[in-house]
Design goal:
Layout: E1 2-10, E2 14-17, E3 20-21, H1 26-36, E4 40-44, H2 45-49, E5 59-63, E6 75-78, H3 81-86, E7 93-96, H4 100-106, E8 112-118, E9 126-127, E10 136-144, E11 154-161
Parallel strand pairs: 1-7, 1-8, 4-5, 4-7, 5-6
Antiparallel strand pairs: 2-3, 2-9, 8-11, 10-11
Length: 162
Amino acid sequence: MTITLIAAAAENNALGKDNDLVWHLPDDFKRFKAITSGHYIIMGRKTFESFPKPLPNRTHIIITRQKEYQVPEGCLVVASIEEALRISPQEEEVFIIGGGEIYKQSIALADKIELTRVHTEIEADTFFPEIDLNHWKLLEEEYHPKDEKHQFDFTYLTYLKK
């Protein structure tokens, strides 16, 4: 199994505020969809609740401490990141999509990070963990300037565990 964290974070590692994203980057959404489609995605309950409905063509695993948490058909509920990984397909890439607490718990378990670095500092209440370059190697980097659809410059970064 390859465990990949996928996120968009500002220069100050800001992810979101009040259970919502703090920017609108359509190309990043398209990349997220292309990378995660057809795979298992693991997330915390608040991240799941931030979606209007489950994301198409993906198996959702929601981590929550709520014993009787109700989810739509096709979504799975577990109590821990370890349990989420146990029930994921062992021969596939699985994606951890947030939020901040789930990223923090899983970064040490991850093999890969797909990070969109948004070139701004923004006020937030949820943050991506610091990437320790002693443990991670930058494999790919692709810069995108801001334009009429994208309010900020951003760079796609792919890290592999050393």
